[in-house]
Amino acid sequence: MKKQTLLLCAIALGSIFTGCKKNDEQNAPQANSANNHALHSTAKVTYTGLPETFESGSKTAYAAASVSLASGSWNMDDALIGNLSGDLKNGSQSVRIRNTGTLAMLFDVTSGATQVTFKYGIYGSDGSSTLALYYSTDGGSSWTQTGSALTATTTFTTATFPVTVTGNVRFKVTKLTGGTNRINIDDFDITSNDGTGGGSTGGGTTGGAATRDDNMGMGNPSGATTSTSNPNNYLLAKTQYTLSYNNSKGEANWVSWHLSSAWLGSATRCDCFTADATLPSTFFKATTSNYTNTGFDRGHMCPSADRNGSATDNSATFLMSNIMPQAPMLNQQPWENLEDYCRLLTSSGYEMYIIAGGYGQGGTGSNGGTTNTIASGSINVAAHCWKIIVILPIGTGDASRVSTSTRVIAVDMPNINTVNAHTWDYYRTTVDAIESATGYDFLSNVPTSIQAVIEAAVDNGPTS
């Protein structure tokens, strides 16, 4: 099988480069279409009765029952329609789910779907819970998860799931974890682009507007899970990115995210480094002060400037689970310049799937010498920082559109303060090499015959 996750930066064959905002924090005190294949019509279709606002129905008990709403009949199991002050809602009502309850359509939309959106968040002062979206093309007899699981917070967040399903399809939301903690769901919407259905088993299309897609759309490189008995490969899925956390190293094994113009906006950089409270209570949680006077920057994996569509998106990148110790001249020069190049490509009709992380132990920061750990041994200092980038024209069915000609950029940079003697392209390598160094299996959602080609090649494309 393939080796495991590297930061995939496949850069589509365009060029253009501008400097974007720096995405890593320096070691300050603690406060601190393109390829147009056959382009179809992109007239948006919104299905009758949607978005479903849950304003027209009534269900006051958690016991399983169906409810007639504006869009059709829905089944709510261990769920009800809430209208209390603790219910997060847009209007006067929303769905409230507890335990492992579900909210499921009992009807099909008949023209397929390219995107599903809904709002979600925690009820009142309840604790954290996770949830996921599923679809069925056989009238509800079987269900398939689409996209990554979501972690609900006190912020009412809009989830966006790109899908490529033609014909009859229905959806359901399932609460996965959190026990009796409750979550709210509202404004459930399904849209399609007339004529652009790609099919649920592949055949995606190129063209149309940029969307926010599955942050782990190319695969789970280390097979991370949400079990606390797996503390060194713990899957943590956020709206903005997904990561595998390593408790023994006090940092992520890898962070995976999607990048397109749909993620970008004008929100300011918050510089609000915060311990990640969504990690299990028994796990080590880094704080910004762990980095003070260490000689290493608080280096973002998913960059701040890749998530400036809203203040919420931006602040998520400052959670310390997304941060690793990086030599200042790595963080601020070749690493940042590659990030800038990726963002530039988004203005030319491209989207990217990126995976980043580190391996080994022992880096050299601004204090000199070799440092193996910081925070009294709780945080590993990697010897190398790597990134893999897969670059595609904007479209749907992304994993199915990766071909042997898809541009993939893989870099492996030493975590030393003289790394800026070379520009980022000097450190280009193969995905195979990063898999060998990390033991991960990258791009596992891509057919193995295609992986064999694109993972063995060193990118020689433009750098600006």
Largest sheet: number of strands, sense, barrel closure = 10 strands, antiparallel
Beta content = 25-35%
The CATH class of the largest domain turns out to be Alpha Beta
SS class: mainly beta
Topology, number of strands: 21
Uncertain regions spanning at least 5 consecutive residues: 1-46, 193-202
Give the overall average pLDDT. Answer: 87
State the helix count: 6
Which series of helices and strands comes N to C?
A: EEEEEEEEEEEEEEHEHHEEEEHEEHH
Rg calc: 22 Å
Domain tally: 2
- For this structure, what is the CATH homologous superfamily of the largest domain? Extracellular Endonuclease, subunit A
Helix content: under 10%
CATH overall fold name of the largest domain: Extracellular Endonuclease, Chain A
The global form is globular
Give the name of the CATH architecture of the largest domain: 3-Layer(aba) Sandwich
Question: How far from one another are the termini?
Answer: 34 Å
